[in-house]
Amino acid sequence: MNQAFFKNKVAIVTGAGQGIGFEICRQLALQGASVILNDIDHTIAEEAAERIRQQQGTCIAFPGDSSDLGFIQELVNKAVSTFGKLDIAIANSGITLFGDFLEYPADSLYKVINVNLGGSFFLAQMAARQMIRQSSSGSILFTSSVTGHQAHKNLAAYSMTKAALEMLAKNLVIELSRYKITVNTIAPGATLTERTVNDSSYESVWSEITPLGRPATALDIANAALFLVSDQASHITGQSLIIDGGWTSVSPSPF
């Protein structure tokens, strides 16, 4: 994409202090967007935003709990008060709590649902309200997962929420298309991030079972995300784009 492809666009990205979310923020900012970077960890959020600013990107940190309704509204208000509008909302926050289905505790289930579904649902709702008030088009993007398409051991709760996000995107086509707001989903597969590289076997195992011979990088995922929130994708809505090097076509287990 052109270096200034997102010039004059304002974006919110949640769960963006590291990994995929950070790279999405970085690429948006480097391509001209003004970005609100959210992470629940204050230090990580501030350091991430500063890294982007050092690369001449426009980015401010707004740390907080992206599953809290009051905070979500503050997040949208911050974008508008700082940059005057909101064009793009990317609900990237999510948590993974592994556990055997037969022993899975209620508090873990409700925490996964609250963050992965509740936070995404209400960010979309509040962002859409702002876009409608502006009488402008807009783009909303959810981060799903390949586990929303293929069963994965010990991830029943997480996988359920990720599949639900893809259905939410489809349903919002009915609700938001009249306002020229697109809603799509990306579904990353195995990806090299700060979290996964701490597992010494992660890259080798996923390189072996991924048809293209390697796990994704955060940039691979960010490139797909940027396309779906760009003007080039203005006639694409209600869709989910799997970015997994072909893994879901064959689906061998890493275990």
Question: What report would you give on this structure?
Answer:
- With 255 residues, this protein is α/β, with parallel strands linked by helices.
- The protein has one domain (10-191, 216-242): 3-Layer(aba) Sandwich (Rossmann fold).
- It has helices at residues 19-30, 42-54, 69-83, 106-134, 156-176, 202-209, 218-228, 247-250, and strands spanning 10-13, 34-37, 58-61, 88-91, 138-143, 181-188, 191-192, 216-217, 240-243.
- The strands form 2 sheets. A 7-stranded parallel beta sheet has the order 3-2-1-4-5-6-9, sandwiched between helices.
- Helix 2 (42-54) links the parallel strand 2 and strand 3 (58-61).
- The longest helix is centred in the middle third of the chain and has 29 residues, at 106-134.
- It is globular, with a radius of gyration of 17 Å.
- The termini are far apart.
What is the N-to-C succession of helices and strands?
Answer: EHEHEHEHEHEEHEHEH
What would CATH call the class? Answer: Alpha Beta
Shape: globular
Trace the largest sheet across and list its strands: 3-2-1-4-5-6-9
Structural class: alpha/beta
Radius of gyration computed on alpha carbons? 17 Å
How would you concisely characterize the structure shown here?
The protein has one domain: Rossmann fold. It is 44% helix and 15% strand.
Characteristic key phrases:
8 helices, Rossmann fold, alpha/beta, two-stranded parallel ribbon, 44% helix, seven-stranded parallel beta sheet, single chain
List the helices and strands and how they pair.
Blueprint (H helix, E strand, L loop, with lengths): L9 E4 L5 H12 L3 E4 L4 H13 L3 E4 L7 H15 L4 E4 L14 H29 L3 E6 L12 H21 L4 E8 L2 E2 L9 H8 L6 E2 H11 L11 E4 L3 H4 L5
Parallel strand pairs: 1-2, 1-4, 2-3, 4-5, 5-6, 6-9, 7-8
